[in-house]
Design brief:
Largest sheet: 11 strands, antiparallel
Oligomer: single chain
Number of strands: 42
Number of helices: 1
Strand content: over 45%
């Protein structure tokens, strides 16, 4: 039998036998209050007998394929205010019998912030809190681990927000205390028709490596509805009739039986009139150095409005080492950009109607970004030698941590192909550009979509995977894939 199953079995047997600390004044343990509901709790070592009811952890969900959620046996989480200098353990109470857990912890880098991870064991050492604040705390009995993540900031993002899905509009912490909770607020935020979510520390979830009983990815974002926030839930919807300028508050309120967060929107004014419409700038790469020559574009994708880039577009095009190219909008020459652009990622200020860009010194796949921070008065761009890769548990890479780069094969008759050979499984995977999620494709291999669902095969095997980029019948750039 697996170790984790032994651990869970031991848990319930010990609960059944008790630790001789139930409702007694015996020297073997403290007296437990008669009215502690059964459950998991965060408990200070100084007060094992009387856990705060707001400190209960609840059985919760983790991520599942296609952005879904699923329950996980033995997984509990909550958000809780912890005082600096306190020492905590985790206690399971059943019929007023307490089983206490702890264990040594070490810090891990999340990219945005840190997380402490501990090895969970019965009567393990306490966790020492270094700084006061609100924490995301989780316990997983399957992997015998606990997680403590400081909630440093909240943000709102989505196509209804000023920054789109590419970055957070930050909410500022407005005081925090164990008794009253905490508020994270933002003022003067323009919300338009569309969708959005809230997340903390600029991350979507906590991703753990797969173990013998499977992986563990738990959420750091909320969705659902503004009246009922759900961890990892569906996007919030914001209707056209509700467009306006808002004060936004994400609030933590100490309590029991929920994850203790709520969101409120207070409208303070109308939304500013839109004077710049990104739909008027459907940028593409064109030129005799590209697959379409001077006859057809290879489209870039609009990625919303970013706090640093403003409105921005991105995409990949294969370029030969001879010829020239430009950016043009709406498949026409009324609006086009030129000048000087190098393949080392250096930002260039473009010229409206400027000279053709010179082809790079080496043929290959290149990743482009075009953006404006002043609604079209000034345009900038970058260019990097970077193309397509595959990523995911079902890809030859075998995880969601890094891409496996595809070979760029050039173009024939206007069709560019990228290939990779390896072992694919029935787990999910995707294509993405530039080792980043800004441009990723999924869904049906014969007609994939931007930001589409994970690709899942009916049967695994060793395949040559080919991504083909061509001109569709409607003049747009078409992406299809085959596995042989």
């Amino acid at each position: 039998m697996k170790k984790s199953m032994k651990f869970i079995g031991m848990l319930f047997s010990i609960m059944a036998m008790s630790l001789f600390i139930a409702c007694s004044s015996d020297d073997d343990g403290p007296t437990i209050s008669d009215d502690v509901p059964d459950g998991f709790y965060i408990v200070t070592t100084a007060d094992l007998a009387n856990p705060g009811l707001g400190s209960s952890l609840i059985a919760s969900v983790v991520s599942a394929p296609n952005f879904a959620t699923t329950p996980r046996a033995g997984f509990f989480e909550t958000y809780y205010y912890l005082e600096a200098g306190s020492s905590i353990v985790f206690a399971s109470y059943v019929d007023n019998v307490a089983t206490v857990y702890g264990g040594a912890a070490s810090s891990e880098d999340l990219g945005d912030g840190t997380m402490d991870v501990g090895a969970l064991s019965i009567d393990g050492s306490p966790y020492n809190v270094s700084a006061s604040g609100v924490y995301h705390v989780a316990v997983d009995l399957t992997t015998e681990s606990y997680y403590v993540v400081p909630v440093e900031r909240w943000g709102i993002l989505g196509d209804a927000t000023p920054t789109g899905w590419s970055a957070d509009t930050d909410l500022t912490l407005d005081g925090a205390a164990a008794s009253t909770g905490a508020n994270y607020t933002g003022t003067g935020i323009v919300l338009r028709q569309g969708t959005y979510k809230v997340r903390y520390n600029d991350i979507w979830d906590i991703q753990r490596e797969p173990g013998e009983d499977g992986g563990l990815n738990f959420f750091t974002n909320f969705g659902g509805t503004t009246s009922v926030m759900v961890t990892g839930g569906s996007n919030f919807e914001h209707a056209a009739a509700d467009e306006g300028t808002y004060d936004v508050t994400v609030a933590y309120t100490p309590g029991s039986g929920t994850l203790n967060w709520s969101i409120s929107l207070s409208k303070t004014g109308d939304a500013p009139e839109i004077t710049f419409d990104p739909n008027d700038y459907d940028w593409g790469v064109i030129g005799d150095a590209s697959a379409g020559g001077w006859d057809s574009d290879r489209d870039l994708f609009y990625k919303g409005e970013d706090t640093e880039k403003g409105h921005w577009w991105a995409g990949v095009a294969y370029l030969n080492d001879a010829g020239a190219f430009k950016f043009r909008a709406e498949d026409g020459w009324d609006v086009n950009l030129g000048g000087t652009l190098t393949a080392d990622g250096t930002e260039a200020t473009l010229e409206s109607g400027g000279s053709d860009f010179t082809a790079p010194a080496e043929a290959g796949a290149y990743y482009f970004e075009v953006y404006t921070t002043d609604e079209g008065t000034t345009w900038m761009a970058t260019m990097n030698a970077s193309g397509w890769g595959v990523i995911g548990d079902g890809s030859p890479q075998g995880n969601w941590d890094a891409d496996m780069d595809m070979n760029a094969n050039g173009f024939v008759d206007g069709v560019t192909t990228y290939t990779i050979e390896g072992d694919f499984t029935t787990d999910g995977w995707k294509f993405r550009a530039n080792d980043d999620w800004a441009i990723n494709f999924g869904g049906d291999l014969n007609g994939m979509g931007l930001d589409g669902a994970n690709i899942e095969l009916s049967a695994g095997g060793t395949f040559t995977c080919t991504l083909s980029v061509s001109l569709g019948d409607d003049g747009s750039t078409k992406y299809t894939a085959t596995l042989e």
